[in-house]
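Record pair follows.
FIRST:
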Amino acid sequence: MVENPPPARSQEDLIAEIALNRQELSAHRLGMSRAANVTDRLQRSFHDHAGLFFGSAIVLGALLSLIPAGTRSRREKSALKRAEAWEDEALHEKKKQSRSITTIVVGLLGKVALDLGKPVVLKMVREHLEKNSRASAPGPRP
């Protein structure tokens, strides 16, 4: 069986189809470039959810301050086995001092983050209130 070939299309139809395909391709390319632009997406996300970013940074800093200072080396383990009681107390004092310094640093970083984030939060609240006041304001009715 011989199949009939599709009818020949005019040159104008082909040009119109190519132009349509190019428009669709450029729209898809633009969408892909926007999706692949990670820095722009992060900036928009940070602007939209600044409070969440600052809060999670504070929580993460608090959790990191609870992690012990580090593992002991073989020398430290053997030295602790042979050490006397006052050496053990000195090691505990070092750990306490290290934790207190970490807590102070995390607290200072949290304060700086809140100080820097306060204008952003105030701007977001102001914009939200303005948007809601415009939406609820009675306008002229036809």
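SECOND:
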Amino acid sequence: MSKPIIAIDMGGTRIKIGIVHHDILLDSTAIDAHSGKGLRYRLPYIQEAIENLLKQQGLSLSDMGGLGIASPGIIDSHRKRVLCIDKKFGDAPDINLEEWCLQTFNLPFCIENDARSALVGESKYGNAKDHDNAVLMTLGTGIGSAAVIEGKLLRGKHFTAGILGGHSVINYKGSICNCGNKGCVETEASTWNLVNIGKSEGLPASSVIDYEMIFNLAEKGNATALEIRNQSLQAWSACAVNLIHAYDPEILVLTGGIMASSSFIIPYLQQHIETYAWTPWGKVNIIEGKFPGTAALLGIAHLINN
């Protein structure tokens, strides 16, 4: 019988840490990411959080079957290294995380891109379970994506296949993205650039600008928030169509923090793709992920055992 897994989801704002057994999250905690300061600085805090979590559950390291990290960026899952990462945890490519895991916990180690991990979680245990061809799009600090084609997780020769949906160009005259390109989906509509978007549209600089605020103000009829909300919906819709055209899925799974407004987002995107996606065989259904906050933890735990 397999043992529980220590699973870590390295978000740009919060680092989630959980103990996962099969499809059950036994317990979890989270710490601030402070991702701009790098990952090495956070490793002792991650270790402390893991030790506290195990203690709360009455477990020891010998009870664990491994440790897995779902990380942003381009991940070499064979050599278990972060190859390239964009702004968040910038020192991660210089850290041998497998060595850290062995020295600190003496456990088997696995690392995978966070969006891929989330799609594995949804494919094995969630709302993509009955589909061999599925695409996932995460709406959060950035815009992530991943694809399962004919039952296999898409990675590609250089580990970039499927995960760069947020860096597909939807406005070639747009602003510079943090990847260096112009007019990426992330630049047009993601949390990391929302403050700049809000200021350019005239929202007060002193405001805490996030999508919860934008959707709430838009509901109240605020013209600026309505404009930002509509522009964002159009950007996410364009990204969805690009993903559908690229990977020919049966379903598109949406997840991430912005999906708190899913009752508004999903119908908008569904109508858009039914109008503009070239799918003569029928409709790609858009569904919300079953595990919007924990799919990556479930997915990386599954990858440890398989």
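COMMENT: The mean pLDDT is 94.
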